[in-house]
Amino acid sequence: MTRIEFYVLPDSEPAGRARAACQLASKGWQHGLSVFIRCQDNQQCNELDELLWSFRAERFIPHELYDDHPQAPVVIGTEQPPAATQGLLINLSPTLSPHTDRFSRVIEIVNQQPELLTVCRDNFRLYRQRGYDPKRVEL
């Protein structure tokens, strides 16, 4: 069964979620997992694409937007189905992915913004209702 984790950041800084997504994508890729970063819209996809280019000066994170190369090691997209299965989904969208079962692991990144906390609490309950056992990880 897919492992679901909610990584909880200590602050409400929106940029912190993007940096955490980059760090998690790097770790996933280094451990041999295909990584899909699910954004809420194309603007967020483009922002994350730019951030990944400069995230680690000493190490390149091989990534592409889904529309450019859906089989890249790290793919940035929205609602598209993953080209590779059994990898890592980093969900930055406020909704659950319709493709959750195609991943071995899903990470939801939460910060202390009140609206996001509410959405993530609802998502936590939805995962439970669907038979998953989501875990909370304090960062």
From TrEMBL:
<dbReference type="InterPro" id="IPR007459">
    <property type="entry name" value="DNA_pol3_chi"/>
</dbReference>
<dbReference type="GO" id="GO:0003677">
    <property type="term" value="F:DNA binding"/>
</dbReference>
<dbReference type="GO" id="GO:0032298">
    <property type="term" value="P:positive regulation of DNA-templated DNA replication initiation"/>
</dbReference>
<protein>
    <submittedName>
        <fullName>DNA polymerase III, chi subunit</fullName>
    </submittedName>
</protein>
<dbReference type="GO" id="GO:0003887">
    <property type="term" value="F:DNA-directed DNA polymerase activity"/>
</dbReference>
<dbReference type="InterPro" id="IPR036768">
    <property type="entry name" value="PolIII_chi_sf"/>
</dbReference>
<dbReference type="GO" id="GO:0006260">
    <property type="term" value="P:DNA replication"/>
</dbReference>
<dbReference type="Pfam" id="PF04364">
    <property type="entry name" value="DNA_pol3_chi"/>
</dbReference>
